[in-house]
């Protein structure tokens, strides 16, 4: 969930899990997304794990001239494992970039630092449809080496001349191979807070032939470097040291490796527009765009982890690995020779990515079996495991009651290294400290996280929305409806700020393709609450139980599932306004109330007129209250339309309410009108 005050340019964004534990991103509008290019001197080679320092964007350095050459280079690995590097000098003005790599004779002097070759339009046109990764880790050295075979499609509207790919700034590109050839590439450092260092190392290849819109190619790349814990991006904007460290805990280290992926640490190639914290919500929007683009991509991964004799003796040989939230079985080969590392090897043959960033976790932990859950904890947290197990047991009947008896996958909980670390979830996996907590806190965690084990969907509004919805239902069960609606309303203002005033006047997001959490979590949870009121708990539960992610191939799949789950009802108008399109939010007004006594003893007929100044229609509850009774009925009020409802009740009405908080509006979500009591003439 993201809470954003009214000032759009300056905000504090809060990303939460079910337990409302969060990373705090403090953003200052003075920071600008300014890409910078790296300067390369002749005779210097890019070293694995070391990216040259960023320099001011365009312009020239002392001693440089426009006619001096920079160095194009290519590398390839021979059969015996040696890396061969060759290069040639070219004119920097002709290429329009700074080229990194090893120098050849003839290239002398310093060179101008020029902007990157690629444009944001080109970066956003690159879509990854398949990733085949061979990943090698040496935790003691914080070291990562990867060979990646990537299927890339031009998702743009124009031919793609440049192919830009990015990694964390601490990783070095070694080789880019396309169509049987090693191709030269330019490297640039981009300031972007989608990585914990605050910078991305971008390699740009000028393609031999432009890639046509919709066309694909395969790219074979190798890269390597060190990934240590870094909170540079947060410290740079004034975040307190302890908050920054507990938020940006990604690292490769003995006993624990946690790489959350794009938005935290870019360990797999991506193509993204630079985004800086403080520039509105661009960082979060770019993360969402990346998730949506990668959803449905195919993944293969081979993992090899080298463990030194010292690590093995310290009990740091990994026994759990998770890729994209899925447990990866490890085969351990222990070495009796101290000079030869032990190996942990795992393989994921074929997976389909959901609306997630690609993450990798490797750790040494003790497994504990909980209800529908495996908890991997450190020895120090063993005394807390029973309380976590009790919470899972308490919540499980509730989850089964709504979603069915059997989950799609077991929930995996992996303990993070420090007790203050901010939790992270992806799919049916939760990375979190396993510390002592009240039963209420633990119950809330499991109400949300267990839902992900049941409801697995590549559609974010269902995966995240249902989990958020179930969290509010658990609150309703434990503390009542008012507390549940208050929990839901906490983020209504942020949703109202994000929504356009009218269709076409703003950057609204249909739920089907939403990339911002305020849509696929907050708005989706509201949509499920409205559907619950419209079709009943039993019907909504039946549809959620019947949901099959493999069968969800058309946009209207869930609509038809819901329409056929109970009494048949046409819900197309609702899905049109709330899921398939972004019509903004409704804006109800209680226009007129007319009350008339009837011939029936003590009964009154009340006519309530409601208008909707928004563009999204909704079935709104109308409640009429008297001293003797309360009657609630529902009426559909279309966007930019009106409706009148007549309600018969015992006793003279004293109050009328429109909306009960389950429908998000632009302003208030409950409209109340007090009615004057009129004396009834004698004889009536």
List keywords for this structure.
single chain; alpha+beta; Immunoglobulin-like; Neutral Protease, domain 2; 8-stranded mixed beta sheet; 33% strand
3D architecture notes:
- With 684 residues, the chain is of the alpha+beta class.
- Among the domains are: 120-364, tricorn interacting facor f3 domain (Immunoglobulin-like); 459-580, Neutral Protease Domain 2 (Neutral Protease, domain 2, Orthogonal Bundle); 588-674, Immunoglobulins (Immunoglobulin-like, Sandwich).
- It has an eight-stranded mixed sheet with strand order 10-9-13-7-6-16-20-19. Strands 14-15-21-17-18 form a five-stranded antiparallel sheet, with no helix packed on it.
- Strand 23 (373-377), helix 7 and strand 24 form a beta-alpha-beta unit.
- The longest helix is centred in the last third of the chain and has 20 residues, at 460-479.
- The protein starts with 11 loop residues before the first strand and ends in a 10-residue tail after the last strand.
- Residues 1-114 have low confidence and may be disordered.
